[in-house]
Amino acid sequence: MDHPQCHSLPQDLSDSLKEATMEVHTQAENAEFMRNFQKGQVTRKGFKLVMASLYHVYVALEEEIERNKDDPVFAPLYFPEELHRRAALEQDMAFWYGPRWQEAVPYTAATHRYVDRLQQVGRREPELLVAHAYTRYLGDLSGGQILKKIVQKALDLPSSGEGLAFFTFPNIASANKFKQLYRSRMNTLEMTPEVRQKVIEEAKTAFLLNIQLFEELQELLTQDPEDQRPSQTAGLHPHASSQVQGEDLLAAPYPVTVTVAVALYGMPTSLPLVLATPSP
Question: Were 33 and a residue from 38, 80, 192, 269 both cysteine, which residue would form a disulfide, CB within 3.0 to 4.6 Å?
């Protein structure tokens, strides 16, 4: 009797992506920073830096999604009213950085690398946007409300949700049902085996980008214990004048495996890998 190799990859793309990112998901959950964050040990400055980086990332992601919204490789996953975060993050930037936030929001080198990768994908290989949208949006829907409550308590924020608009999805009645819909749409995308594998590897790349970004922010926080404005912190630059310093570690073609990512950059040590980690 023949025994086909049916376990090399799950049939559905959503299952394949979950399986491919499982190791880095576990690493993120066990990171010291995450354990501390779940205990409510989060600083105002650290959270501002996290939100600033997310702002730049989502602006880039959603610009590329808009560019490719009619492309059949991405169109089934186009849910701007339900998912897009740019407007919510602009509200949050005004709360955290004031009325002239566009001049004050920091833009780190690792954030710039993330943005560059999103732009490269959107303009050259739009099918890989599937991996980035999956990684970000399903993660937001999975853990957002829990993280929102932790931050509200730790930073004594208003119960009205000011400063935390990012975590609220007013046009999604049920996160679980919407995630089911999103995964079912993903699983209908027509891909060759080669493209499918590239999407899976790009999901790992998305986690690598997050690891680099938030390890950089963690290092900046460690180097600068004083609670000063993030735009004055060494290594941070306002958006208008930001330049990427040093070698662009993500300029080379992919794939990059999780094992290599952990070996090169160490244990993931911060919050937004959970923001970017879809639930099982």
Answer: 269
